[in-house]
Amino acid sequence: MNVFEAIENEKVLGKNPGVLLSSFPPENKFPHRDQELRQLVMSLQPLLAGQKAGHVFLFGAPGTGKTAITKYVVESLREQFDSRGVPFEGVYVDCDQFKKNTKVFQKIVADICEKHFMNGEFKIKRTVAGYQLMNLVDTLKNILRVGVVKNLVIVLDEIDVLLNSKDQGDYVIRTLSRLKDEKDIDEKVNIVIVIISNSSKVREMIRESVWSGFSPTRIDFQQYNAPQLTNILLDRAAYAFNDGELEDGALQKISAVECSLRRGDARMALETLYESYKISSAQGFVKITVDVVNEAIERTETNIFSRSVELLNKHQRILLLAILQELQRFPTEKLTSVKSFKRYSLICAALGETGHEVSERQLQNILKNDFEKLSIVDLERSWYSPEKKSVNIISFSHSKNTLHKTLDSLYKEFNFSEEEFK
Fold first, then answer.
1. Is the pLDDT of residue 244 over 60?
2. Alpha helix (H) ranges present in 168-240?
3. What's the start-to-end Cα distance of the chain, in Å?
4. Among 41, 61, 210, 385, which is least packed by CB within 10 angstroms?
5. DSSP per residue over 224-262, as a string?
6. pLDDT over 60 (residue 118)
């Protein structure tokens, strides 16, 4: 018998487990997000009446539905405009992927041209050095002057990454928000900017002169609590599994842990449920038990942490090694950024990296802009008497198993052991 035929004849777990990985919920149902959905719809509704609409700022912790709801609303708006024969374009830019001003405008222009100017009416000038920012901005202005696109919604997700870049951070927002004032651009052209972020520092990153002209409506996405997260899992599980395939308490366990570790991140809760399915299927189980969920929680946490570490450069990984060493050696003591820098410098010397290491000031920026953002460590600014100054207190909220596995991986990468640095 063919091996696939043998599997097909077995009773297998689940009816459509892939639905757990989808960014969009089945039938576009967003549990516990009716208010936020309505606020965004009402903010964009004036466009359908040919009126100006204000800009929007969506704020909330990761996994609270900001991106999924925005994409759904913009696509729904596109359907409405298409049914009326009115030109519309919605452009989505992930600033975590397009980190520079030039890349953002290149994405905006390319998306519009792909859908509305397929005959190459607007060719972007490219120099030996690549695309020039001003050429891209001028091309966008010329596109709007033609008047083919009457309504344009531009979504800038993870906007804090762009604002933190070495480019003039708020240049994109300033330029886009002032396009309507450009000469020869029809006053009936409506442009709306939607920014999305989980950082509370966004307002501080934008200059007052830019913010006053931008003035977005803010929509807050509160983190899910455990009962809400359980409802979301139940709703998705109804499409993924058959009756009786989930042990009582399994979903509640996932929800409780996610709310404890990651502030109610629905994406990670769904990933944990899918990991539970994979473990159960591999072992031939026909039900997801609480014991399997516990194993999946550990795997998911390790997977998430590993993905974050993979994004770090060499010296960021050396710094992480220094931090984890200190946390392992002195688990009851407060770990400061100053202590971390001393340990980091010691490791750099042992690796022959002296002269290439980051400065203490750069280390502070790495902790704040990379490690904390990627949820690798938690930071708390506090006055620390032994050092007689305000310092960052570093803590590690992941499991001891994750700490040990990461240390082992870093020791292997840099080819030395803990014993060498005691």
1. yes
2. 171-177, 202-205, 208-214, 226-240
3. 59
4. 385
5. P-HHHHHHHHHHHHHHHS-TT-B-TTHHHHHHHHHHHHH
6. no
